Amino acid sequence: MLTPMALEWEQIIVDSSDPIALRRWWAEALGWVVVDESQEIIEIRPEPDQMPRLLSVPVPEGKTSKNRLHPDDQEA
């Protein structure tokens, strides 16, 4: 018999052609705060010191496909 596993996530990194606009939109939609906004990475969290965090990073070659979530251990 399989035992259900709890899922706890710490961060998600999303590539984007416009990471600043994407994170600002998500921060407003979720009511989260922007904790880091630099040229390389944009980070938002529910509160400045609380997990999980969502990060956006620029894609230099341009976005060509959807972002997808995959567990580290897909067999599990």
Task: Explain what the structure shows.
The protein is an alpha+beta fold and 76 residues long. The protein has a domain at 11-44. Helices cover 16% and strands 28% of the residues. The protein contains one helix and four strands, in the order βαβββ. It has one helix at 19-30; strands at 11-16, 33-37, 42-45, 53-58. Strand 3 and strand 4 form a beta hairpin. The two termini are 14 Å apart.
Helix and strand layout, with pairings?
Layout: E1 11-16, H1 19-30, E2 33-37, E3 42-45, E4 53-58
Parallel strand pairs: 1-4
Antiparallel strand pairs: 2-3, 3-4
Query: Biggest β-sheet: count, sense, barrel?
Result: 4 strands, mixed
Radius of gyration: 15 Å
Mean pLDDT: 77
Percent strand: 25-35%
Class by SSE composition = alpha+beta
The spatial strand order of the largest sheet comes to: 1-4-3-2
Elements, N to C (H/E): EHEEE
Percent of residues in helices: 10-25%
Please count the helical segments. 1
- The end-to-end span amounts to 14 Å
Shape: globular
Flag low-confidence runs.
Answer: none
Please provide the count of β strands. 4
Quick tags:
single chain, about 80 residues, alpha+beta, four-stranded mixed sheet, 1 helix, 4 strands
Outline of the structure:
The chain has 76 residues and is α+β, with helices and mostly antiparallel strands. The chain contains one helix and four strands.
